[in-house]
Amino acid sequence: MPWKAPIHHFSYRYLIIPPILLALATIIALFIHSDVNAALLWSQCHSRARLPGLSRIPGIGTPLCYVVSFFRAAMHSVRSSAVMAVVLAFVGGLLTVSSVEAARICNAPNVLIAYPTGPWLVFDLVGGAGVWELVIIPAFLHRARKVIAERERRDEDGESSDVTSRHLPDSELVAIPVSIALGYFLPSFFMFFFTSPVSIGIWLFFPIYVSLIRQATRKIVNLVKRADPTTIHLASSRLSLIFVYALPVICSILAHILVIWSLTLPDDRKEMTKSTIVFIEVDTQFIFWTVLYWMLVEVGWRVPLTTFVTAVLVGPGAGTCIGWIYREKLIHDHEEASDENAEPADEETPLLQ
Questions:
Q1: Which residue(s) pair with 232 in the sheet?
Q2: Helix axis angle, 78-103 relative to 172-180, nearest 10°?
Q3: Rounded to two decimals, what is the model's pTM?
Q4: pLDDT tens per residue, range 13-22
Q5: CA 85 – CA 297 distance, rounded (Å)
Q6: pLDDT single digits (tens) 170-182
Q7: Beta bridge partners of 168
């Protein structure tokens, strides 16, 4: 079967047009769904009438107060809390995928991919979907185009391809799930069950916790184990895949069940809660569509279709993780097929196959 993924046929300048259009659509959709409540929150924080202990911090007090108040208002009902659980599980799936890609050898030259803490902080505190549409996914597409160009050059020159380019250091098998569990999901659980300014304020800086815990865990693993550090291909080990992706998938399934259950109850959302949660829903949906486009560009239509169907059944967090596993399998199979076709004939190779 021929490889027909768009990234093999279109230049980078054309591939980033849809994310830019999605960013514009996000702005329009958020503007349509906005109302005076968001401005009211900002006004209250600016006048120090809301969360005075936080809003009085010089320089950053008002925006921090606004973000904390925004998330707090979004979780002031059973139904909106259930929706937030789905959003948190989805972000956990994205964070897992981002961490896996950051650890790959082939992505090391790209700073935005290999060191995702900065983009994730901007996404969490300021940018939302726009960061994925205009920064993160364009960075991945740019890197993917470079990897493909390098591979084509090697094939033309008759050089063997680097079979370990998509591998991860073996210490990441422990570092990634531990950092996601302790650095992201633990603060998320506290924010979900104890919706207070303190718990929300702590959660906001989860990209820093994930980065620090991941680095510390890597060092501990390398110190504890006796064997020399090596690399592994994640998609080749079912046990490794389960260990890395199990937590976001389980959380997504539980959140999906919770939101279905909440729909059987009367809508208990107040006006401010409706305004904030709708804003988050719209933003999250555009992130999901952008991720589907990313998958479509890199591996064709099967992966985004699988991701979408899985997301409908068990939530977008699980859908993203399952789709990413499938994506990696297709890329691995394609590279193996390309290597076999590129092998030069020798005395024992049949001339006709």
A1: 168
A2: 160
A3: 0.91
A4: 999 999 999 9
A5: 29
A6: 999 999 999 999 9
A7: 232
